[in-house]
Here is the input.
Amino acid sequence: MIIERVTGEALRRHIPDLARLRIEIFRAWPYLYEGDEAYERKYLETYLRSSRSVVVLALDGERVVGASTALPLEDEADYVTAPFAARGLDIARFFYFGESVLDPAYRGRGIGVRFFEERESHARGFGTFEAACFCAVQRPDDHPAKPGDYVPLDAFWTRRGFAKDPSLVTHFAWRDLGETAETEKPMAFWFKRL
Here is the structure.
């Protein structure tokens, strides 16, 4: 296994793999995402446009089996930054961790921990960011698609030093599996001082 940081134009050749991984992994609970490759490619362009972004890749030989994204919060879309502005928080102080996706066959090997370490190291390297943050979907406990054996990632994120702020919430819209229209989902933020 190789863990590699990719920035700028070097990311372009990996966009098809990243789009594929996002669609595959986010089909599972709690996202239930009915992915669209055209949307994915457009979304991932955000990381090409941001001069300070990073994508951490997990490679098995040449095959991308996982990826984790991050960029300054001020380079993110308005629907991500809006809750910060509403609260009067300076978005220039935060580095945003977009997502981590990893082929299930490679889980439990410490790759998720490395994803956080590499993104935090990248953010600290600028010397200007006070905190890292990300957001996670909030589904109701009684949702009919929730697997009986589901274990949330809250404990994993807490061990990484992140704390949830349930009062800071945004909404992302996507089409759930089997649905015909997008619906908004609440996304709660987690934070860690850098």
The domain at 2-193 is CATH 3.40.630.30 (Aminopeptidase). Helices lie at 15-25, 37-49, 78-87, 111-124, 154-159. The chain has five helices and seven strands. The two ends are 27 Å apart (CA to CA).
